[in-house]
Amino acid sequence: MDAVQEAASTPFLEAQHVTLQFGGIKALTDVSFAVRDRELFSIIGPNGAGKTSIVNCISGRYRPTGGAIFFSGRDISRLKPDARAALGIGRTFQNLALFRHMTVLDNIMVGRHHLLRNNFITGSLYWFTGARREELEHRHKVEEIIDFLDLQPVRKAVAGKLSYGLRKRVELARAMALEPQLILLDEPMAGMNLEEKEDMARHIVDLNEEFGMTVVMIEHDMGVVMDISHRVMVLDFGRKIAEGEPAQVFDDPHVKRAYLGEEDPPPAETEEVRRPAEAGT
Fold it and tell me: Which among 124, 152, 179 is the end of a domain?
C-alpha cells in the first residue's frame, strides 16, 4: 500500500477501546468507533448513556482512563484542549458558553484567537505593523460566517439579549471561526422550535458539504438524525450497542429496546397456549 492509499484508509477520527471512569462509576466502557473524513456522524442514546462523555474525551476536556483517541492518525489522548483546537478540532456545548455581555461579532472574533499571529509587542504598534491588516483579514472571515448563518440583523447585538435559538447559532458561528477540520456539536438543536431546528439542520448540512467539515453530532431529535446523518452510533449505559447507516441502526432490535423503548415480542409458546382456550369459547 502506497502513502496515498494508506492516508485514504486511515480514519479521520478514531476511538479505540475508550474507557472513562470517575471513582467507581464507569461513564464509558470499551467504546470503539471511526469517523471518515467529511462525514456527518451522529451519536445518540438515552440520557446518561455517555454521549457527552465521549465528545469530552475527543475535545480534551476529559482524559480517558483507558484506550486512545486518534485524529488524522495521531494519538491525541494526552493533548490539552487548546492543543487539539490548534490541530483543527472545534466544538459547541450542550449548555451555552457565550460571553453574554459581548456582541455577536466579538463573540465570533474570540473564536479566531488561536489564529492570531501578532503578539503583545507588535499589537501595540497597531498602525505600523501587520496587526491592523491581520485584524481586517480576521474580520472579513467572521463576516463570511455571519452571512452564512444569517446573523446579519444581530451582528452588533449583545449576545445575552438574543433568543435561545439565535444564541445557539452564534455558538456554532464561534466554533466555525476556529476553521476546524472536525467540529463537535453537543445537542445543537436542544430547546429549539420546529422552524429553528430546520434552519440549524440546514446550516449543519451546509458546513459539512460546502465547508468540508467533518461533523460529530449529539442529537435527540430522531427525525433530524435520520435525515442528515451519514452514519449513527448508539450508546447505552456507556457502551456502544450499534453503529451504521441510520435506517440500519434504527431497525436494530437492541436499539429499539434500549433507546426507543420497545419491548421484546411475546414468546412463541404464548400464542400456542391460548389457542385451545380460544377454540373452546
Answer: 179
- pLDDT greater at residue 128 or residue 93: 93
Residue pair 185/217 in contact by the 8 Å Cβ criterion: yes
C-alpha grid cell, residue 215: 461533523
Q: Does residue 2 lie within any of the structural domains?
A: no
Domain that holds residue 149: 98-179
Residues 6+ apart with CB under 8 A from 127: none
DSSP codes of every residue in 13-60: EEEEEEEEEETTEEEEEEEEEEE-TT-EEEEE-STTSSHHHHHHHHHT
CA distance 88 to 167: 23
C-alpha cell at 187: 445537542
The answer on pLDDT for 147 being more than 70 is: yes
Q: Residue 250: which H helix or E strand, with range?
A: helix 246-250
Reported as half-sphere exposure (CB side, CA atoms, 13 A), residue 128 has a value of 4
- pTM beyond 0.85: the answer is no
Alpha carbon distance 150, 142 (integer Å): 12
